[in-house]
Design brief:
Length: 215
């Protein structure tokens, strides 16, 4: 396991290290907007399984998917409705994730054995991971913090054993930008599952029918 300082050295070398580890089936630790996260190739089943084991997730928990651009969502989503398009056009890249139906033919298992038939997806707004996504395609991710615990923005707060991950990419202590906001689209309802960096006041002008009932 290598710890790589993103604040020194050549970005191209750091990107090469990250993409090589991901393509070899390793989980890596990388900085997102507000916290460090576990990241794996979304199509590498063993890597995604390892990501869930590292977090101590229960069976059936599905990892989030990160993509490099809003255009890439058409390749993994079953359909993009007008309300979904409005949100992603306004808030991607950024801390808004949408839960939508996934393409049934995709050869991946995000942790739910594809039973849910949906994915939670977003385009991150962080230079390093955005550049990685340009080279890898969709990545599975989850906070490095255990379920229910606060996000971790300082790598000194975690213990990673040798062999747990392929590489750790250290960008120092990250600014606390808050959780991402999660909006779920179902057949008949649009629900704000979690309010975070994007507030319901920002969402309502675009989607007046959004329901805050699960806040």
């Amino acid at each position: 396991m290598a710890t790589i300082d993103l604040n020194s050295g050549a970005l191209s070398e750091h990107l090469a290290s990250a993409t090589a580890a991901l393509k070899d089936g390793y989980v890596i630790v990388a900085p997102l907007e507000n916290s460090y996260a576990l990241v794996a190739d979304a199509f590498f089943h063993d890597a995604v399984r390892a990501l869930h084991v590292l977090r101590g997730d229960e069976l059936g928990v599905s990892a989030q998917v990160m993509i490099g651009s809003s255009a890439a969502v058409d390749g993994i989503a079953r359909e993009i409705s007008e309300p979904v398009r409005k949100l992603i056009d306004n808030f991607w890249p950024g801390q808004l994730s949408v839960t939508i139906k996934s393409q049934p033919g995709l050869n991946w298992n995000l942790g739910d054995d594809r039973r849910l038939g949906k994915i939670n997806v977003r385009v991150p707004n962080r230079k390093f991971i955005s550049k990685v996504l340009e080279k890898t395609g969709p990545l599975a991710t989850s906070s490095i913090a255990f379920t229910g615990k606060a996000a971790i923005n300082d790598l000194s707060q975690i213990i990673i054993r040798e062999g747990d991950v392929g590489a750790v990419f250290d960008e120092g202590i990250l600014e606390n930008a808050g959780h991402s906001t999660i909006v779920e689209f179902s057949e008949n309802e649009i629900t704000l599952q979690r309010e975070g960096a994007v507030s319901i006041l920002q969402l309502q002008p675009l989607i007046p029918s959004i329901s805050p009932t699960n806040l």
